[in-house]
């Protein structure tokens, strides 16, 4: 009899383990955004000076709007914000030019600034809690520019988007737009190519806690069309802050059905289908 109860206990334990392992799981949330500001020197600017430059002495006021208000300024004291100095002497791999090619598209001036850099300031914001807004993106861009100004930097790197940004370009962006938290600034579509075909991938969706997107292998002559469809898709997803099963977007006077196929790991695969136009008999 005792053996019977032991057997029942074992069966109960095994059933519990099976139920735990096969239960539906909610996908973990993770958002991250980051800038590296390359400096010719070895010291990080004082954080008080940085915050004064970001808030009190911010030179950018497009449309006569203060780009950093109280809610954006609170990011500075958020525990999810990490600011650190990385020295070339202790982490030379991070300064290697080949790590930034070809997707980052460095110019000769970018490579010269990278070669001259002796350190970089890493500004990173990560969250495992669902974000309520995009204030962290607004703050990080202005904070990176402030560090660049105070540290005499000529080059900024966005590792999430795999994009090198000359300081002059960052000034141009911040001077032109009061709100730089949108997908036109924070996202990009890049292409990985081979002689016969290529595919598109997004960079930047993870900044708002969404997975990146990837297309199947596609003919290279479809690149302009796919870029346009993906750009519109990204704008819609940025607004919705979630991935649906399907979405319709318009491009080049046509309507396209975008199908989202989540993978167990990695980016969401998207398939783009042209929607047939209705005809009048």
What's the structural blueprint in terms of helices and strands?
Layout: H1 2-22, E1 31-39, H2 47-56, H3 70-73, E2 81-87, H4 108-116, E3 119-127, H5 135-150, E4 155-158, E5 163-166, H6 167-176, H7 183-186, E6 188-193, E7 198-203, E8 213-214, H8 223-240, E9 246-251, E10 254-261, E11 268-274
Parallel strand pairs: 8-11
Antiparallel strand pairs: 1-3, 1-4, 2-3, 4-5, 6-7, 9-10, 10-11
Helix pairs in contact: 2-5, 5-6
Describe the structure.
The chain has 281 residues and is of the alpha+beta class. The chain has 2 domains: 31-183, no CATH class; 187-274. It has 8 helices and 11 strands. It has helices spanning 2-22, 47-56, 70-73, 108-116, 135-150, 167-176, 183-186, 223-240; strands at residues 31-39, 81-87, 119-127, 155-158, 163-166, 188-193, 198-203, 213-214, 246-251, 254-261, 268-274. The strands form 3 sheets. A 5-stranded antiparallel sheet has the order 2-3-1-4-5, with helices on both faces. A hairpin with a 2-residue loop joins strand 9 (246-251) and strand 10. The longest helix is centred in the first third of the chain and has 21 residues, at 2-22. The protein is globular, with a radius of gyration of 23 Å. It starts with a helix and ends in a 7-residue tail after the last strand.
